[in-house]
């Protein structure tokens, strides 16, 4: 195995050719597709008279457009029904595995691939979805691509790409109680900026990263794209291997031992040279909330909305825009800001550990009066596991709605949407204007535990206080 970073090693292993202009033709080991970005790509194949080059390396699911209250067919939305039917037809014609509704394996594409063991160290992964960077948690390099690139991968199993620089983000120390991977990555993006990672792959490393579970690492890598990085990854280790062992598509028997040896050799070694390195102290990170209209506009829950004087000069125009859109006063505390809707789910935070963390806050408490709160598992497997543990009952008893798996209100390509100027406490990944379905709706990003704290408090609340305070069966309508 050659020396260098994991990114360098995986890139070299998948290089097909060097192209004129400096790009590389890169082989893609796993191609994930869904109903939104694939129809035009399949139509383009038909127009060119081409077939799918490696259908065995392509896996499909349905997630973005599926309703979460009832998934009975046909869907009430005829366009959503058409998109799902088109995906079903294209997969059947080309021999592609589709994990559809009711299969037991359907869910958000970036949730099901890891839980099925499809995502493995050393892979190149592509999907027509921005948050494909999630799969880097396994020591893969994973890229979100556009529809024309989906066409290219279907036709050739490769992509033309330029090689990225690599920045190591090293996190020392230990995260305090009530602080999660979501807080960590929002803190990183806040510090480096939403454009700070442009041209880079982010390697997350250090003791605090090594202490994260696989699901926490997926949250971290999922949002690397929100910091401008094309991909983010964590070196594979014993945590990775323990997660993968026994999963449907993971190697077994002697092949497992060979795979672990191979995967271990892929990790960035002591000789690896990085283009940049940034160091963070995990102990200084508080539960983090976005206040503005980009994921970089984030503060600790115990901080105030920054004033213009506290903002870099080049960021002041978007800060002023955020003040107006969010209707927030510079210098005002974020804690105590009222919310209307509380959403737990998405490819960022819809996994079992996310639901456990939120349920721990909700248990024995009640959703505050006037708050709409709902939980959307990231997959059918997550839903089944959560129900087996009784988490659905915890949420229902607290006043949350328990929904069917899907992308839900992350981007509102389905019936789950904000209305008017509602403010959402959301465990998803983007707080752009109109992101959650209303042109004037407002989104505050935070961890699932923080969303649960907001739901039972009726406003942005510091989850550390709720964790430290015994729950009460009485409704909580003020700050705990």
From TrEMBL:
Cofactor requirement: [4Fe-4S] cluster
Keywords: 4Fe-4S, Amino-acid biosynthesis, Branched-chain amino acid biosynthesis, Iron, Iron-sulfur, Leucine biosynthesis, Lyase, Metal-binding
InterPro entries on file: 3-IsopropMal_deHydase_lsu (IPR004430), Acnase/IPM_dHydase_lsu_aba_1/3 (IPR015931), Acoase/IPM_deHydtase_lsu_aba (IPR001030), Aconitase_4Fe-4S_BS (IPR018136), Aconitase_4Fe-4S_dom (IPR036008), IPM_dehydratase_rel_enz (IPR050067), IPMI_cat (IPR033941)
E.C. no: 4.2.1.33
GO MF: 3-isopropylmalate dehydratase activity
The keyword 4Fe-4S is assigned to this record: yes
Gene3D superfamilies given in the database record: Aconitase, domain 3
Binding site for [4Fe-4S] cluster: 347, 407, 410
Pathway entry: Amino-acid biosynthesis; L-leucine biosynthesis; L-leucine from 3-methyl-2-oxobutanoate: step 2/4
Domain Aconitase/3-isopropylmalate dehydratase large subunit alpha/beta/alpha: 8-458
Catalytic activity entry: (2R,3S)-3-isopropylmalate = (2S)-2-isopropylmalate
Cofactor note: Binds 1 [4Fe-4S] cluster per subunit.
Keyword Cytoplasm belongs to the record: no
Subunit structure: Heterodimer of LeuC and LeuD.
HAMAP family attached to this UniProt entry: LeuC_type1 (MF_01026)
NCBIfam families associated with the record: leuC, PRK05478.1, PRK12466.1
Known role: Catalyzes the isomerization between 2-isopropylmalate and 3-isopropylmalate, via the formation of 2-isopropylmaleate.
Family listed: Belongs to the aconitase/IPM isomerase family. LeuC type 1 subfamily.
Full protein name: 3-isopropylmalate dehydratase large subunit
Protein source organism: Cyanobium gracile UHCC 0139
Encoding gene, per UniProt annotation: leuC
């Amino acid at each position: 195995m050659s020396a260098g970073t994991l990114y360098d090693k995986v890139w070299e292993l998948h290089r097909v050719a060097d192209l004129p202009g400096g790009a590389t033709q890169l082989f893609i080991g796993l191609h994930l597709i869904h109903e939104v970005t694939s129809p035009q790509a399949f139509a383009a194949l038909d127009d060119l008279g081409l077939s799918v080059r490696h259908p065995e390396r392509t896996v499909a699911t349905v997630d973005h457009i599926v309703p979460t209250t009832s998934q009975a067919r046909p869907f009430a939305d005829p366009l959503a029904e058409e998109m799902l039917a088109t995906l079903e037809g294209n997969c059947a014609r080309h021999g592609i595995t589709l994990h559809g509704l009711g299969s037991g394996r359907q869910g958000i594409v970036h949730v099901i691939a890891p839980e099925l063991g499809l995502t493995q160290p050393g892979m190149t992964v592509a999907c027509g979805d921005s948050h494909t960077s999630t799969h880097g948690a396994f020591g893969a390099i994973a890229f979100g691509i556009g529809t024309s690139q989906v066409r290219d991968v279907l036709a050739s199993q490769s992509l033309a790409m330029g090689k990225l620089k690599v920045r190591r983000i090293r996190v020392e120390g230990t995260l305090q109680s009530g602080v999660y991977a979501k807080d960590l990555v929002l803190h990183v993006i806040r510090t480096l900026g939403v454009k700070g990672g442009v041209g880079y792959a982010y390697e997350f490393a250090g003791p605090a990263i090594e202490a994260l579970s696989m699901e926490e690492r997926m949250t971290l890598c999922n949002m690397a794209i929100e910091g401008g990085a094309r991909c983010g990854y964590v070196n594979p280790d014993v945590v990775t291997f323990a997660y993968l062992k026994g999963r449907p598509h993971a190697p077994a028997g002697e092949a497992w031992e060979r795979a672990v040896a191979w995967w271990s050799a892929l990790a960035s070694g002591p000789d690896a040279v990085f283009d940049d390195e940034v160091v963070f102290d995990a102990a200084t990170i508080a539960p983090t909330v976005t206040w503005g209209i980009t994921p970089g506009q984030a503060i600790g829950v115990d901080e105030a909305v920054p004033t213009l004087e506290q903002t870099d000069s080049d960021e002041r125009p978007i800060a002023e825009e955020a003040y107006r859109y969010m209707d927030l006063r510079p210098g005002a505390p974020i804690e105590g800001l009222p919310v209307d809707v509380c959403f737990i789910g998405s490819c960022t935070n819809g996994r079992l550990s996310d639901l456990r963390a939120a349920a721990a806050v909700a248990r024995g408490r009640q959703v505050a009066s006037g708050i709409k709160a709902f939980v959307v598992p990231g997959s059918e497997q997550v839903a089944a596991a959560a129900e087996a543990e009784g988490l659905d009952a915890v949420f229902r008893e607290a006043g949350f709605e328990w929904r069917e798996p899907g992308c839900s209100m992350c981007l509102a390509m389905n019936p789950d949407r904000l209305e008017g100027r509602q403010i959402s406490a959301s465990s998803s990944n983007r707080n752009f204007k109109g992101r959650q379905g209303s042109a004037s709706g407002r989104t505050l990003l935070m961890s699932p535990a923080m969303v649960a704290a907001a739901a039972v408090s009726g406003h942005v609340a510091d989850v550390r206080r709720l964790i430290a305070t015994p729950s009460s069966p009485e409704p909580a309508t003020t700050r705990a």
